[in-house]
Amino acid sequence: MSEVVQPVGFPERWRTAPLWTLFRRTSRKGHSAEPLLSVYRDFGVVPRGFTDDNWNRIPEDLSGYPLVRPGDLVLNKMKAWQGSLGVSTYRGIVSPAYFVFAPLRDDFSQSFLHYLLRSRPFIESYGRMSGGIRVDQWDLDPWAFSRLRLPLPPLPEQRAIADYLDRETAKIDTLAEKQTTMIERLRERRAAVVRGSVLGEVSANRAATPYWFGRIPSHWQTPRLSHHHHVVLGRTINASQALDTDISVPYVAAGSIQPEELILDAARTLTVPAADVAKYSLRRGDVVVVEGGAGYGRSHWLPTDIPGWAFQNHVVRVRPRDSTVDSRFTRLVIETCRQSGFFEANNRTATLPSLSSEVLGALRIPLPPLDEQRAIADYLDRGTAKIDTLIAKVQRHIELAKERRAALITAVVTGQIDVTTSTQSGDAA
């Protein structure tokens, strides 16, 4: 394999050097007492638990986890094409699935290299260098990675670039954090509106119950969810093909079920026996619920049929058995239960949080007469639509801020913006 040469476009006065002359792969093991670190696309190297979406089980034996020191370059070989790498400012240990590279010299800015290696041109090159059958199985070869040629401006300019990007990205990040806080408040407001309606809090004649929802209107019922609904767990993705008649179909995954939308990726498929196609079908009025992992208990109501699709084993489908329920109301009840903390408080799994179909089916729900269910669902369709629209607008602002941040980093680390000139001009002003 020949050396990988980065795309042209950097200032000619900048020298270049292959990555292997700056970093060398290392594997310091036997430090299991050190704190765990993770590598994220948006954050680089951070302590485990920095975000709340890492539910992977921690093994008892961490002796094989390599040590990371401040200044080390850490790479997630399976997700490098997404930008999951960075120069660490922390000391700790990482999964053996990560590559750790120790610096060989001190004549370069580690902060500059952090920005450079996470810039768009380099992230795109990781995708081209990675091998594998499908995207979620791509694997970046460490030898090829070490042959990357890095553009290196003079050390004072590297430091100026890193300082400039620290300042400017901090401004963008602060704005994004404020917008994220706004979304959290909007979701809290939405949850309060939904809860008040679903539990009939405006009713004057309410009675106490021993269940998670407490007091509800006295004429409402409190059946188990499975009494009026079929509760079915999805198909295992890697189930072996037992028959020649098995067919491959796209499926709704746990990650497809997001707070405000259902994201469908037709490229992902699983096999289903022809006789079970109806069992795993999806149609209007179904409620799909995340069964395990990050976001368990999150749900979505299907407004239309999804012909030809199935759902995986980390998703539970809730479908009305009879005409006594409006599944829009059912979905609102499940959402309210999740936000109440009931699912989390009653989770019995020590490692991977989950909400089994059995537990969901046994859930007691508040159930008003059908006409009241419909009235509540209609009211909330109108009331929450305004909040959802506002959330979508704020989310778009955050996406634009991230795009602007990535574009700025790329422009600066490739020399399209000369920060030494802009800094001097700013100082003079």
TrEMBL record:
One of its GO terms (molecular function) is endonuclease activity. The keyword Hydrolase applies. Pfam families: Methylase_S. Residues 218-395 form the Type I restriction modification DNA specificity domain. The keyword 4Fe-4S does not apply. Keywords: DNA-binding, Endonuclease, Hydrolase, Nuclease, Restriction system. Belongs to the type-I restriction system S methylase family. The methyltransferase is composed of M and S polypeptides. This is Restriction endonuclease subunit S. It comes from Dermacoccus barathri. The lineage of its organism: Bacteria, Bacillati, Actinomycetota, Actinomycetes, Micrococcales.
